[in-house]
Please model this.
Amino acid sequence: MKGKISVGIIGAGRIGKIHASNIVYFIPEAKVVTVADVNMTPEIETWAKGLGIAQVTKNPDEIFADPEISVVLICSSTDTHADLIIKAAKAKKNIFCEKPVDLTVKKVVAALKAVKESGVKVQVGFNRRFDHNFARVHDLVKSGTIGDPQIIKITSRDPAPPPISYVAVSGGLFLDMMIHDFDMARFQAGSEVVEVYAKGACLVDPAIGKAGDVDTAIVTLTFANGALGTIDNSRKAVYGYDQRVEVFGSKGAAAAENDAPSTVKLSSEAGVCSDKPLHFFLERYKDAYINEVRAFFDAIAHDKEVQVSGEDGLRNLIVGLAAKKSLAEGRPVKISEVPLE
Amino acid sequence: MKGKISVGIIGAGRIGKIHASNIVYFIPEAKVVTVADVNMTPEIETWAKGLGIAQVTKNPDEIFADPEISVVLICSSTDTHADLIIKAAKAKKNIFCEKPVDLTVKKVVAALKAVKESGVKVQVGFNRRFDHNFARVHDLVKSGTIGDPQIIKITSRDPAPPPISYVAVSGGLFLDMMIHDFDMARFQAGSEVVEVYAKGACLVDPAIGKAGDVDTAIVTLTFANGALGTIDNSRKAVYGYDQRVEVFGSKGAAAAENDAPSTVKLSSEAGVCSDKPLHFFLERYKDAYINEVRAFFDAIAHDKEVQVSGEDGLRNLIVGLAAKKSLAEGRPVKISEVPLE
Amino acid sequence: MKGKISVGIIGAGRIGKIHASNIVYFIPEAKVVTVADVNMTPEIETWAKGLGIAQVTKNPDEIFADPEISVVLICSSTDTHADLIIKAAKAKKNIFCEKPVDLTVKKVVAALKAVKESGVKVQVGFNRRFDHNFARVHDLVKSGTIGDPQIIKITSRDPAPPPISYVAVSGGLFLDMMIHDFDMARFQAGSEVVEVYAKGACLVDPAIGKAGDVDTAIVTLTFANGALGTIDNSRKAVYGYDQRVEVFGSKGAAAAENDAPSTVKLSSEAGVCSDKPLHFFLERYKDAYINEVRAFFDAIAHDKEVQVSGEDGLRNLIVGLAAKKSLAEGRPVKISEVPLE
Amino acid sequence: MKGKISVGIIGAGRIGKIHASNIVYFIPEAKVVTVADVNMTPEIETWAKGLGIAQVTKNPDEIFADPEISVVLICSSTDTHADLIIKAAKAKKNIFCEKPVDLTVKKVVAALKAVKESGVKVQVGFNRRFDHNFARVHDLVKSGTIGDPQIIKITSRDPAPPPISYVAVSGGLFLDMMIHDFDMARFQAGSEVVEVYAKGACLVDPAIGKAGDVDTAIVTLTFANGALGTIDNSRKAVYGYDQRVEVFGSKGAAAAENDAPSTVKLSSEAGVCSDKPLHFFLERYKDAYINEVRAFFDAIAHDKEVQVSGEDGLRNLIVGLAAKKSLAEGRPVKISEVPLE
Model:
């Protein structure tokens, strides 16, 4: 098919597969030509063929070496992101990289440096900015409808904790979970975080504590524009995925409630009950995943700014590291205290 | 206490007691001086004393004969209303009469004739017009906010059926229950009913059918201004008292939801649940009962039109009789088909 | 592609295009091979090519003659449906036909006869049964959660009236609009309609009245199982597409509210406001259209009963004709009064 | 009237008048016999007479000296509370004291010591515990329905800032406004606060900053039982009084939304809008004020524990002082750091 943007996808795990099928079904101007996975399996091959993806490989370099391919999606494990970004940048491929870019500021800075030198575009996978509810809140803030933002309130709770094995390598709650909320807070406040105070506890599962992490946390943010923020996280909400954002300002407040599978209310002797929130991120952010890749390809097609930059990825990481430092030292931490290398 | 409006109450049943204590607590310009009940009991005497009511009697005529008393509340059994109105009118007492005025058009017409001749005020106890939710809907209609009313939708369901003994004498669902909805429909439409079609069924309790009544009904109304209405009634909603009104017009719709004891939402594995509606009319219309007597005394004190006239009582009865006729004959019935005597 | 169900689509208007792209994107086991439209245009050809549909034609017979094709979607104008069903049935193609099958009972009966003789499957396009909200209500009814259905309440209002030209040929409000609600009522009640009373008015646009139709209507339904129903329709709700269903039963009530673009609440000096309902059927039933074709192909693949049969199409039409007769004669009409030819 | 509890009220300002009329109208077992106000005015005298209160005086000592009076309500200015409590205790009067008891720990401790020695009851006016919504949340927590409390979230925003003159003497946002939320947090958590971190800003009115206070604040609480809390306050929410509480636990979450004047939803081209929250505390806590005095007299009549003790008043003050210290020093502060004298 002439004129289509040829795409290579690195990493065929859950999120890699989501992006691949979203591109196949919803991005007519793009075409996935190669999928690379260091652990290529017959299952992945069958899946790729089913989507009409011509080539599969164990070696990402085949993607970088393919002159037809102009866009790379990096969906492999976090520890590989930075190096793959550098390779992709050198190969002049536009990049969509899953979050986090890396768990160390140093490697993220190095990756962004390579991106800057090559002039390619890079978008980081903070998908929640593309959620219909949070985008609507953002519109109301940006349009000035609620006036100057004064308080940003974010509640983010998972239906169940990840495996302990994951907690051990993920960088912990602040870097694998709340980092999404840091991005959301910056997105909604329209301002950068300058100070963080984090309070955490292990109330869900002692094993998480043994792994050196917390499973419940409340963080207070201070923004450059003077606004304040509060984020609460829990690894386990028995009623499902709880994702709410509220921005309070001088002219009003905009609050996004959860999405549910239906609007049906059941009235009975037991009370008036409605559905639990959509179970988890795959259901809640189904459309957001489509919207983020659509926005990415739109930015490429029309040479526009991406909506979530590598810089955003870096800043979110720094806020997360400041939160970890705050928790460890039991005091508010200035963003400027986080070393850039 | 000088200058207070002296009040006599006839009938010390549930509703009579509610009005009495509401006047004592919330109508500082009025004073209940006598309570009459043909079945005077020690219990009533104690209750009256507790409220600081000086006199109790078995004989309503003592109230009519008392020159100090200028206002009478008629809260006795329905079959006594018309005659008591006539006596009160002749004694030049302003009258608050519980609904229905009577189950026959002839007696209501006679009572209203006596009222007209004596020039006293009479307000009929259609309390729902004074409910905060329905009054708010009415304001939105009257102010033109929703444009010309086109569809009036009323849902009215009781938590449990009345005793069969009551059904046998009440005039049935259309005259003891839906008559409130006919008044609400006329109130919200701002226009008179010209045609009624009633469909009924006995789905709750066969004994109600045996008593010659229905326990479930849907009525279609046609108004003089062209608007249409639909009312659904059930004698038994297991989740409690269901009282909703919606007015749809050319510029929008105003819909009143039920009231609940609290706004609390409980999110658990079972779903997201909130309270059932307030259980029954005593809870739901607690403030409406206060507001209606306040409005009545305000109309007297400032010589204003009452908000629910005897004429309203007559028209509501006629709509109810038309509904009974429609159900009996299985066809839409014009209001003009109901004989005025 | 081997093993895929080959599909021919007749009629490339709005709804034909929706089904085509839904099959291409969401029904991997099916493949659209031919699109026929008597008014084939370059625009349609480009669209078809864009979707990877190999053949386009002006002549539906090419589809019936194609031995590869085993499934036909009939999305052409209503007056052609019955004949095309007969042709498709004779050609042994399974059939998905848009609603209504026809505006006359006689032609629908003839079409269903042909279908029966050939033994092919036919599903009629009453898409709302596949809406997430209404399906949830249905689950609660079918599971017995709300007990025996007693009152079915349906509100269905369009954001704006169709062109007068359409009203003139559509069969009118009861056959082009409320017929969806008749299907929904039968679906939710789990019982057949036995009597209909229709009241209509022309309150939105006098031109609709001139065209011999009404634009506002309230219909009372009586079901074989004793339940009662009320449906209200308006051609114009300024706040958007209003699609609500409530089923009240002996153990509770299930009520589906409208869907909105977001859950965001904006609190300001003006009040607490949220989004209007999704604008119209394309937005509200986007997923329902996908679900209905998925269910259709699933029924074919696994030789199951279709979820909306030709019989349903016939019964909905008969209820619609009974409603028209009721409006014309100003009386309740028994379903049995509608002649079967 | 024999057998009634005779009550003296000190301070006939807004809150004193509310308590007086609530006792007159809603506490039949009590009788207000004297009202004292150092600034007695004809207006107060008229008001008292209207309520049937026999005596008015400028001198509170007349109340302490009256052997008939067994209950005193202290509704005068904060700086007089402690001394009046001591006098009342010595005079063996049961005491209801408005919050805060005092702005210094030392004087509160002294007052509570006098109370303990005399053995009278004292209830402090933290009225929000008696709000129907927050009481319902508390029931769900106490009954174990939501499991172990893990996160307590409180939003408390006023419709408009108080006069600067008030801010200057009130002790500031943490002692005049958020102290209610500290009480609510302790009430809902069922545990004492052990650490406080406060972040504040002046975003509403610079004059408040000049007066040495903040008008916007977010506080993080740590409870003895391990739960965490977050409270956000603003002196100005343009949409009205915003009073919400959420308790998240191991088995679910209970969240109280705001109360509004009606449940009516207006759907128009502008959106779907409902009423703003009840404007301010007089409207929102109307019933809570009645409930708290009812509970107080009930505790006296049946010699039960009061529901908000002097100890609660002391602990709330200490949390507030810890919050002020935290804000001043920019670090989390342990409750144990607040000196008890």
About this structure: The CA atoms of residues 12 and 44 of chain B lie 7 Å apart. The first strand of chain B starts at residue 5 and ends at 10. Chain B touches chain C at residues 147-148, 150-151, 153, 155, 157, 197, 199, 201, 203-204, 216-218, 220, 222, 226-230, 232, 234, 236-239, 242, 248, 250-253, 330-332 (CB under 8 Å). The two ends of chain B are 45 Å apart (CA to CA).
